[in-house]
């Protein structure tokens, strides 16, 4: 139990120390930023598929019902980091940016028969961008506008999965959700030498609840199909976002400042997830996931015509669909290449926000990866996972993004609870 407590403390301290924005996309200025899934090392190689995945040697926070499959002698500790390069294209103007950082830390162990407990820290959203534009209003007036933002949300969670009857497992994650965002728009007009700044900020400290279910349907001795479903209720984040308007007349050295605040102005949407997976022994598994987030029913604060208030129609329901699989030629083979887990996946997603009344960019993605088993005298159950993911965001008359992300994860899997026998 001391080892479990130490792992939980390490997970919290490590991710808190490395928590940072893992994006530099201008699209992260909308809503709560770029949203993250709850995938870990093995999911990422399959492009995030996991709602119906369950194995006794993996932690899968995408569906807490999977925790009930944990091996009785096992303590799993999974940590990952990522780095990405993004190329931007707007009407032939090209630019590139880099970002990266520590992603997640997750632990999993068995509490009782058919009961697993998991804990850790996962990202929820990231905000990070800085860009500017110049406009010529007329022969005597020019305007420069700068956009900057940073922040994001993180979730510290604990969850459990239970298998009350053989084919059915249920589970939940309860998360402490925290973070902030800071966004600013600064514009300068040369005609009257004025600088107008709109600064938006919010501090968030709330909770998130996820409920999951998995149903295993055997087809034969070595084959089965698993159905998975998740549900996360929408609720208010009890946060009061602020908007600070500052107008500086540099010619006369005068500044006017007005602070606006929206009471209880941020919320999470209700989210549904559905998954199916086919498993053949320990050699092959393929799956498909559909996730629906009901952002369309969530109002978001907006400053319009001198009023800062909640406004409907800024966000929209979003849909994400992924298909992926994993193949291991021979899990017990002597050749290392036979034991490697080869993974691949593809997917598409729709945006959850509008930009000037138009739907934001759609997303197409694909990934390739592999899991390398670590075999030595001290450890023969752990996995090093490496995957690459390509993501393309595009919409008519908007910035196009082509991103390549490298994910590296290490799954530490040891028999902490084995009882040693000395003869």
Structural overview:
It is a single chain. This protein is mainly beta and 423 residues long. Helices cover 6% and strands 60% of the residues. The chain is built from 3 helices and 23 strands. It has helices spanning 2-18, 41-44, 336-339; strands at residues 34-35, 75-90, 93-112, 115-136, 142-165, 168-189, 194-218, 223-232, 235-236, 242-249, 254-261, 267-268, 271-280, 284-293, 300-304, 307-311, 318-327, 341-349, 354-355, 358-359, 362-374, 382-394, 400-414. A 14-stranded antiparallel beta barrel has the order 2-3-4-5-6-7-8-13-14-17-18-21-22-23. A hairpin with a 2-residue loop joins strand 15 and strand 16. The longest helix is centred in the N-terminal third of the chain and has 17 residues, at 2-18. The protein is elongated and about 80 Å long. The two termini are 26 Å apart.
Strand line-up of the largest beta sheet? 2-3-4-5-6-7-8-13-14-17-18-21-22-23
Which sequence of SSEs, written as H and E, runs from N to C? HEHEEEEEEEEEEEEEEEEHEEEEEE
Query: How many individual β-strands?
Result: 23
Task: Specify the structural class.
Answer: mainly beta
Low-confidence stretches are: 1-19
Tally the helices. Answer: 3
C-alpha geometry = elongated
Q: What is the typical, i.e. mean, pLDDT?
A: 89
- Strand content is over 45%
Biggest sheet character? 14 strands, antiparallel, barrel
Helix content: under 10%
Gyration radius, rounded: 24 Å
How far the N terminus sits from the C terminus, by CA atoms, comes to 26 Å
């Amino acid at each position: 139990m001391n080892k479990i407590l130490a792992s939980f403390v390490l997970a919290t301290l490590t991710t808190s120390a490395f928590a940072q924005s893992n994006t530099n996309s201008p699209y992260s200025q909308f809503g709560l930023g770029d949203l993250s899934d709850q995938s870990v090392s093995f999911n990422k190689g399959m492009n995030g598929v996991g709602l119906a995945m369950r194995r006794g040697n993996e932690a899968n926070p995408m569906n807490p019902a999977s925790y009930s499959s944990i091996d009785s002698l096992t303590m799993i500790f999974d940590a990952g980091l990522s780095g990405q390069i993004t190329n931007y294209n707007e009407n032939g103007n090209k630019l590139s940016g880099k970002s990266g950082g520590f992603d997640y830390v997750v632990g999993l162990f068995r509490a009782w028969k058919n009961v697993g407990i998991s804990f850790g820290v996962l990202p929820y959203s990231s905000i990070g961008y800085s860009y500017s534009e110049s406009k010529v209003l007329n022969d005597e007036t020019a305007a420069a506008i700068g956009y900057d933002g940073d922040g994001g949300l993180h979730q510290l969670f604990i969850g459990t999965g239970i298998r009350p009857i053989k084919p059915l497992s249920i589970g939940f994650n309860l998360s402490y959700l925290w973070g902030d965002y800071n966004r600013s728009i600064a514009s300068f007009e040369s005609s009257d030498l004025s600088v107008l700044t709109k600064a938006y900020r919010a501090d968030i400290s709330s909770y998130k609840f996820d409920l999951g279910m998995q149903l295993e349907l055997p087809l034969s001795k070595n084959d089965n199909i698993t159905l998975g479903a998740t549900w996360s209720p929408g609720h208010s984040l009890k946060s009061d976002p602020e908007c600070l308007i500052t107008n500086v007349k540099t010619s006369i050295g005068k500044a006017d400042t007005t602070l606006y605040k929206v009471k209880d102005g941020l919320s999470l949407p209700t989210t549904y997830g559905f998954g199916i997976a086919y498993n053949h022994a320990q050699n092959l598994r393929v799956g498909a996931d559909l996730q629906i987030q009901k952002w369309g029913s969530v109002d978001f604060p907006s400053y319009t015509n001198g009023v800062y208030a909640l406004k409907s129609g800024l966000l929209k329901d979003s849909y994400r669909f992924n298909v992926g699989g994993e193949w291991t030629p021979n899990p017990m083979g002597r050749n290392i290449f036979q034991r490697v887990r080869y993974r691949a996946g593809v997917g598409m997603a729709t945006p959850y926000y509008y930009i000037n009344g138009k739907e934001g960019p759609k997303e197409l993605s694909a990934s390739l990866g592999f899991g390398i088993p670590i075999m030595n005298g001290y450890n023969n159950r752990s996995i090093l996972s490496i995957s690459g993911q390509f993501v393309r965001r595009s919409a008519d008359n908007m910035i196009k993004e082509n991103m390549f992300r490298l994910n590296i994860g290490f799954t530490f899997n040891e028999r902490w609870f084995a009882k040693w026998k000395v003869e």
